[in-house]
Design a protein that fits this description.
Number of helices: 5
Strand order of the largest sheet: 4-2-3-5-8
Distance between the termini: 28 Å
Shape: globular
Largest sheet: 5 strands, mixed
Structural class: alpha/beta
Radius of gyration: 15 Å
Mean pLDDT: 95
Number of strands: 8
């Protein structure tokens, strides 16, 4: 799904959302330069793989949090983890670096990518800001609505404390 298809999905499902259009961003430092309406709800997304390239993970946390992959591995009993390549990102989620988002999971037709979401996004106000499969916008929506969209497409979600 591309950006326009994501917008159409949200509209057709009558899902509340706001869109912030902005220049292309490729990291959280660039995102910090953009005036955002809900900065506390901005998401950081890490696309990682295990050392055997058998398991892929999308880890989504609050934008101001750091993810210790070694600690994540120990807490969740995975093999050693490292960042997946741009080729793997395109192959599994149909995304380019800088555009990583949970909405990219809608492109994972083989169901290869496991999704881990920081439980903090469920705390009030319960909002999350993610790219619409394109790094030139951020879509703000209710976290529960995002989870409902993903679950409705057969995506398994693991909530964790980041």
């Amino acid at each position: 799904m591309n950006k326009q298809e994501i917008y159409a999905l949200l509209e057709s499902g009558r899902i509340w959302h706001e869109v912030t259009e902005h220049p292309a961003v490729y990291n959280m430092a660039e995102v910090a330069q953009i005036p955002l309406p809900y900065p506390q709800a901005d998401a950081k997304n890490l696309f990682v793989r295990d050392d055997k390239k058998r398991s892929y993970y999308l880890i989504t946390v609050k934008g101001d949090k750091r993810v210790d992959l070694k600690a994540f591995r120990q807490q969740n009993h995975t093999r050693p983890l490292s960042f997946a390549s741009a080729d793997d990102l395109m192959k599994h989620l149909g995304l380019i670096p800088g555009a990583v988002t949970p909405l990219g999971l809608l492109n994972d037709k083989e169901g290869r990518v496991m999704f881990w979401l920081d439980r903090a996004f469920l705390n009030p106000p319960g909002l999350i800001g993610v790219h619409p499969n394109d790094n030139t916008a951020t879509v703000w929506l209710k976290t529960e609505d995002l989870l409902q969209i993903l679950r409705g497409n057969g995506i398994q979600i693991t909530l964790f404390n980041a």
